[in-house]
Amino acid sequence: MPHSDMDIALIDSWPNLVNSAQIAFSRRFRWAAEKLGHRAFAVVTSDDIEACNPDFVIALDEISPKLTAFPTFGAMWTPPIRYHREVRRTRSILSYDGYLVGSEAVRSYLNDLEFSLGVEKPKSDFLFLPTDSFAGLAQPRGPHRTLAYEIAAGDDHPAPDLVAALKAAGLVSTAGGPPPGSRDDTPSAEGGADRLTLREHGAALCLHTDEQREADLPSGRLFEAAAAGAVIVTDELPFARRILGNAALFIDTSASRANVVDQVRRQLLWLDEDPRRGERLAAQASAALQGRFDLETMLAQCCVFARSVIEGAQRSRLDAIRALPKTESVVLRQAAKPSARNEAHLPERPLVDVVVRIGERPPEVVERALRSIARQDCGTYRAILVDYKSNEAMEAFAQDFRARNIVVTYVTSPDTGYRSTALWAGLARVEAPFFAILDDDDSIAPDHFPSLIELASRHPTSGFFYAGTIRVEDEGGVSPPNLMGPLELQFREPRELMFLEPNDLSRLMLFDNYITSNSFIARAELLNEDVLVNPQLEVGEDVYLFLLLASRTKFQSSFRPTAIWHWRSVSRDQSMLVVDSDRWRRAAAKLALRLAYIPLPATMTLSRVAQPPFVLELGVVTSFDPEVVARSQGGALNSGELAGVWTSATRGFMRLLLSDFVQNGQILLEFAVSGTSPAATQNVRISMDDQPIYNGPVRAWVLIRVERPFRFARSRNVAMLRVECDSTFSPRQAGGANGRELGVLLSKILIEREDRRRRRPQWLRAFVRYMRRRRISAPTA
Q: Per-residue pLDDT tens for 23-62?
C-alpha cells in the first residue's frame, strides 16, 4: 500500500434525497482529499466500490454495511440510541473493520456492544465529525449580521417549532443548500452554495437534538458556520462549550419559546452594536477548530488510522499462520511453486483442506470458486474436488488447474442422491490442520481463511470458527429502501449482508441455519470416526455437521462478512430451490432422529425438538394450532390451541420458516386481543421483519383480519412475526382457574408471493372477500 496517497470511497447511503447532508460532506471531503494528494470517490453501490478499487471505504451512514472485500470503516457520528431502532443498522455496524468515532459516548456504546460478543475492532483515537475546510475568513456583506439556518435532507432538524417561532419573529432565515435535484460536484469560487449563504448572513443558528446533546455529537452546521466566517449561535452542546467556549454565542433552548426568541434577539442586537465583536468571535471559533477539527486534519488522521488497521490486520494474520506447525506434506510438493511475494512466509503444508463438491456445473463456475481460494492474501490451501458425476471433463480441468497458494486433489464419489455422500467423501480426505466447505458456485473474500485462522489462534480451546456472509445477486439486483427517494435516480445493489450472527445454538437446533456452508473453518481433529459416518441426507447435511461438531467444541464468530453466497433469482437453478418441501421435511426428521440424544452444550439435546420444524407453505391458509406452535420457534407464547396461540406477555414473536424464498408478496393475518370486557379496547402493533402489518386500536375478543402487501429487501425463506399490545388479561380475573396471561391471539396466517396472489383459486378468493368480524369467548379454563 503506498504511503503517500490513498484512494478512498465514500458511501452515500441516501442518494435520492434532495439537498442531502451526506452529498455535501462527500463533496467537501473530496476537495480536501485532492489538496492532500489523495483521491476520494463518491459511491452508492458495491459495484461502484469495486469500480474505483479503493484502499478503504467509509460508510457515511450506519445503514450501509460492508459489502465488498475492501476494508470498510463506519462513520459513527449519529446518536447511539438510533442504532438499535433497526436490526439492520446494528448488523451493519458489526460488519465494519473499524470505527471512526464521533464522541466518547459513541465509543462507550461500541465497547458495550462488542463486549458480550467477544469482539474488539479498532476505533479511531480522534473524533470523526462532519467538519469543513477552514480556508480563510470572509466578511459578511452589509453592515449587519443576520441569522441563517441551513436545512439539508437526511440531517437532523431539531426543534422545528423553535425555528418557526424565530422565523415568525423575523430573526432567522432558512435555506436548503443547493437547488433541488442538483448533484453538481463543481465547487464555486466561494466554496459552494451553503458557504455563500452563511457569508451573506454572517451568523448561523446551530441547533442539536436531545439525542445529539446526550451523545455530545456536533452537527455539521457548527463547522460550516466557522468555515464561512459566521458567528456561531448554538445550544448547550458539551462539545461546543468545551471547544469553542466564549468564541460562540449560547442559547438556553430548554426555556420557553418566547424566552429563546428574546435571547436570540438580544444577541443579534449585541452584535450590531459593534461589528468588530462578530469579527472577533468568528476568528476565535475558526482558530479553536482549525488544526484539530478542520477537514484536512481529520482526513489525514483518517488515512493514518486506516493504514494502521489494514497493516495491523495483515501482520496478525501472518503471525497466526507462521505459528502453525510446519509439517512436511506430499500434497504440497505437487502444487505449483508459490509466488515470490508469499514464498517467505508459506508453511510447508496446506493450512485448510477445502471440500468442493462438483459434477453438474460447468468448469468456469468451479474455476471462480477455486480462484477465490487462490486469491487468499497469505497461506497455502488445498481444494478437494469431489466429483459425484465422474465427469472426464472435470477431471481434466482439475488436473490442469494451476494457481498460486492452492493445490487441487480430484476424487470421485458415487451419485447416491444424498448430498451428504460427496461431502463426507471429501471430509474423509482431510489432512490439513483445518477443513472447510465451498460450494462450487460460491466464493470467498481474499482474507477469509487467514482471518479465520487468526481467530482460531486467539481461541485455542475452540474448534469451529465462522464468518458473516454476503449474498451476491449474479443476475441483477434490487433497490433497498435507502436507495429510493424523491430524485428517483435508479440504483441497483447486487449485494446484501445476509448473515452476521452471534453463536446461537438454539437456532441451529431448530434448523434455522445462520452459518452458510462456505463461511467456516474447523479443526481437523474434530473429524473422528463418529463424525465421519455418512448420515445419508438429501439436504440439510451442513446443519447436521454443525450440530454434530457443536457437541464437541465451542463456536466462535469473526463478525466479518468474508463468505460470498452467489444467487441467481432469474435462472432459479439454486440447489435449495429445486428441493421440494417434502424432501426438506424428510431430511429434517432424519436429522432430528440421528441427533436426538447427542449431548450439546448446557446439557441440551435435540430430543426436545424430535419433530422437524414447522414449514409454512406459501399460498396456504394456516392455523396456529398446537402442532404448529410446538414445532415453531417463538418467544412469550402460550401453548397452541384450536383457536390459535396467545402471547403470554405484551410482546411476543414467532419465527416463520417459509416453504420457498419470497421477496414481494401479501400477508393475510387473523388475530384478536384480550381485554377485561367485550367493550374494552387496546392498541395492537404487528410487524413482519420490521415491516408494519397492523398498528391501531382493537376491540377485545373480536377477530380481526388484515391483508397487506410486503416487500423484503431480498428474497428470503425466514420471517419474524412480532406482536405487541398494551396489557394482558388472565382468565382468573373472570373467575377461571387458569392463571396464564393472554395478550394477542394469532389465529390464522396466509403468506403468498405477489405474482401468485392474482392467481388465487376461487375458494381462496371467496375466503378473503367474505371475511367478517366475529366474537370469540374469553378463555376461562
A: 889 999 999 999 999 999 999 999 999 999 999 999 999 9
- Determine the pLDDT at residue 418: 92
Return the amino acid letter for 71. Answer: P
Taking a C-beta distance cutoff of 8 angstroms, is the pair 637, 646 a contact?
yes
CA-CA-CA-CA torsion sign (319, 446, 480, 566): negative
Max Cα-Cα span within the chain? 93
pLDDT at 770: 45
Residue 775 · residue 701 · CB < 8 Å: yes
The answer to whether the beta carbons of residues 58 and 291 sit under 8 Å apart is no
**Residue 628 in contact with residue 614, Cβ under 8 Å?**
yes
Specify the DSSP class assigned to residue 779.
P
Q: Rounded distance, CA 666 to CA 661, Å?
A: 14
Q: Find all residues with CB under 8 Å of 608, minimum gap 6, and list them.
A: none
Q: What are the backbone dihedrals phi and psi of residue 780, each rounded to the nearest 5 degrees, phi first?
A: -120, -15
pTM equals: 0.78
**Cα–Cα distance for residue pair 152/156, rounded to 1 Å:** 8
Q: What's the confidence (pLDDT) of residue 347?
A: 43
Q: Report the Cα–Cα distance between both ends of the chain, in Å, rounded.
A: 72
Task: Return the pLDDT at 346.
Answer: 41
Residue type, 81: I
Q: Which residue has the cell 462549550?
A: 241
| 60 neighbors 154 (Cβ within 8 angstroms) | no
Low-confidence ranges of the chain (pLDDT < 50): 1-3, 177-193, 327-347, 572, 576-577, 608-610, 763, 767, 769-774, 780-781
User: H-type helices in 231-362, by residue range?
Assistant: 238-243, 257-273, 275-289, 295-322, 330-333, 340-343
Is there a contact between 213 and 103 (Cβ–Cβ < 8 Å)? Answer: no
* Alpha carbons 240 and 248: distance in angstroms, whole number: 8
CA quadruple 618, 623, 626, 627: dihedral positive or negative? Answer: negative
State residue 70's pLDDT score: 97
Output the nine-digit C-alpha cell for 672: 384478536
Among residues 119, 126, 57, 112, the alpha carbon closest in space to that of 83 is found at 112
Residue pair 397/383 in contact by the 8 Å Cβ criterion: no
How far is it, in rounded angstroms, from Cα 745 to Cα 643? 8
For residue 464, give the H/E element and its range: strand 464-473
Looking from the CA of 8 toward its CB, the CA atoms found within 13 Å total: 30
DSSP 672-716: EE--SSTT-EEEEEEEETTEEEEEEEEETTEEEEEEEEEEEEEEE
3-class state of residue 325 by DSSP: coil
Other CB atoms within 10 Å distance of the CB of residue 141 = 11
In whole angstroms, give the CA distance from residue 665 to residue 70.
Answer: 35
189 three-class SS? coil
| Coil vs helix vs strand at 213 | helix
Helix, strand or coil, per DSSP, at residue 538: coil
CA 426, distance to chain mean position in Å, is 33
Cα–Cα dist 776/767, whole Å: 19
* DSSP conformational letter for 136: -
CB 438, CB 354: distance < 8 Å: yes
SS3 238: helix
Which residues lie below 8 Å from residue 527, measured CB to CB, with a gap of 6+? 427, 430, 435
- Kindly state the cell numbers that stand for 2: 503506498
Residue 682 grid cell: 387496546
